[in-house]
Design goal:
single chain, 187 residues, alpha/beta, Rossmann fold, 8-stranded mixed beta sheet, 29% helix
């Protein structure tokens, strides 16, 4: 009798692992971008970072926290998300690709440290690795170096997605005018 109980448990474990494998294979994937004007970055991601996302659907959220929440609130938290977009940096060269390793909100006038949220690594070749500070406004000056600034990523991460990756393209060195010139008016 114990041998049959063992076989039943063994069969159950094998079946469970099979279901987990199927679930992993069919996990939804999405590219998350703030604006359609950033879609030109997708070809560069494939060329520069070696990441082919040609069959992955794109969700354009709009800029900022409210748009992020509105656009992504109903997505499965097990979905794999690739946040791709423009970012500013105080010292990275314009045109650099940055793989974001962690993200936090940036409130320059508060004295407490914001929570840090880690992102799942992509290990892309030829990209810088750095943190991202998410702001509610465009950053025009900062003492932070070796990082990027955006307006969406911390809000995406705060929604609790388990498989979140981010690649940012440095569009400016904290200059709104340079950003608009570089992106040709992408808002």
């Amino acid at each position: 009798m114990r041998f049959y109980e063992f076989l039943n448990k063994f069969a159950y474990i094998i079946f469970f692992l099979y279901l987990c494998t199927i679930n992993w294979m069919i996990m939804a994937k999405y590219i998350i971008m703030a604006e359609e004007g950033e879609s030109g970055l997708l070809e560069q991601v494939r060329e520069k970072a070696g990441l082919d996302l040609s069959d992955v659907p794109v969700i354009y959220t709009g800029v900022g926290a409210i748009n992020i929440i509105r656009s992504l609130q109903n997505l499965d938290r097990d979905a794999e998300l690739f946040n791709i977009g423009y970012a500013g940096s105080a010292n990275y060269e314009i045109g650099s690709w940055v793989e974001v390793t962690e993200v936090r909100l940036n409130h320059p006038n508060v004295t407490y440290k914001e929570p840090e949220l880690s992102l799942e690594p992509l290990n892309t070749a030829g990209t810088l690795k750095s943190p991202c500070y998410t702001n509610t406004d465009f950053v025009l000056a900062s003492d932070y170096k070796d990082c990027v600034f955006d307006m969406e990523l911390a809000f995406i991460a705060a929604l609790g997605f388990k498989h979140l990756h981010s690649l940012k393209y440095v569009s400016d060195n904290l200059s709104l005018h340079a950003y608009h010139d570089f992106t040709h008016g992408v808002e």
